[in-house]
Structure formats: structure tokens, C-alpha cells
Amino acid sequence: MTTKNMLENIAADLRPLAVPLDQLRADPRNARAHDDRNIASIISSLGRFGQRKPIVVNRTTGIVLAGNGTLTAARSLGWSHLAV
């Protein structure tokens, strides 16, 4: 799979911000717990529209500060990258 294909689910203007998912870690102290229904909604939205806004990540630690649900959903969809 080419890098372009790996990024096809990310809006074109966000692709330069793409980071491999294996470099990202969910925040263990995330204040917002996502239940199965919420994650299913995010999965549905990403599947239909793709990623349209970046998540927020601490570049030093790779911990997601905003977008933990999006990270979980992207992994469920088998995505390899997210824009951060």
C-alpha cells in the first residue's frame, strides 16, 4: 500500500500532518470516557466523511490530549495514520 492510499481517509489539506498510529498513545488520564455507542458514532462518521480535523497530541510523548475517541475509532477501522 502506498503512502497516498494510507492517507486517503484524511482530508487532503490535513495529509501533511499525518502521523502513524503506532506513534500515538491514548491518554490514560483522559477526562472523557467513550462508551461503545459513542465510539460507534465516531467510527461511522470517520467511515463516511474521513478525518476532517486534526487531533491534538503532545509531540514529545505521543499522548493524545484531544481526540482519544478518534484514535480508538481509527484503529478500529484499520487506519494507519491520523492528522495531528
Describe this structure in words.
The chain has 84 residues and is of the alpha+beta class. The radius of gyration is 12 Å and the shape is globular. Helix content is 32%, strand content 13%. Strands 1-4 form a two-stranded antiparallel sheet. A two-stranded antiparallel ribbon has the order 2-3. It contains three helices and four strands; from the N terminus they run H-E-H-E-E-H-E. The model has no long low-confidence stretch (mean pLDDT 92).
How confident overall, as mean pLDDT? 92
Separation of the first and last Cα atoms:
21 Å
Instruction: Note the main sheet.
Output: 2 strands, antiparallel
Radius of gyration: 12 Å
| Morphology | globular
* Structural category: alpha+beta
> What is the strand arrangement across the widest sheet?
1-4
Output the helix-strand order. HEHEEHE
The tally of helices reads 3
- What share of the residues lie within helices? 25-40%
Low-confidence stretches are none
User: What percentage of amino acids are in beta strands?
Assistant: 5-15%
Number of strands: 4
